[in-house]
Amino acid sequence: MDEAQGRPAFTGLMVHRDPSVGYSLLLPDGWQRMDLPDDGGTLYRPDPADPTTGLEVGGSDLGTEVSARDLAAIRPGFLAGLRQLPGCRIEQQEDAAVGALLTLEARLTYRQEEAVRKRWVRLLYQGRTQVRLVAEGSSEERFGYWESMFLTAFRTVRFGDWWAEATGIEWVETPFQSDAEKAPWER
Length: 187
Hints:
The chain has about 190 residues and is an alpha+beta fold. It has one domain: Protein Transport Mog1p, Chain A (3-Layer(aba) Sandwich), CATH 3.40.1000. It is about 20% helix and about 45% strand. It is built from three helices and nine strands, in the order βββββαβββαβα. Strands 3-4-5-8-7-6 form a six-stranded antiparallel sheet. A three-stranded antiparallel sheet has the order 1-2-9. About 25% of the residues are buried.
């Protein structure tokens, strides 16, 4: 990454896959991965020296089907949840229902102690599944620096398997047991 030039540089992409929920996305290669406790998802950090800047991804089975008619009920809860952050200022919000896919996203700033942080949240729903992406910068400047990298993940998330398209090997054919047994793109 070339901070002197004012923007990060791609060195490659890796695939984040979650076969248990059924989604995948592409993100910059080389980011530090950390699995969050209690199945809270996975955190990817571009810079270990800046632990509060990164991308969190996770998914869950809601136990009930979600459809386009549910968007009007989901939207207020989504926004109310974001507004609970101290000093929250929602800069941009949009949502859509396209066939069986629902998507909501917002960009916002909030205060954490003395710091003003910037966050971008995207929720996707299909059937019984919810996928969550949260990109955050330790400051508005750090968010701006990494924004193009966050954009790649936010726009490549999909219900399905990127890796299967590239290799022809479905994730159900590849049982992963431990991190040591996983292929590099799975870690």
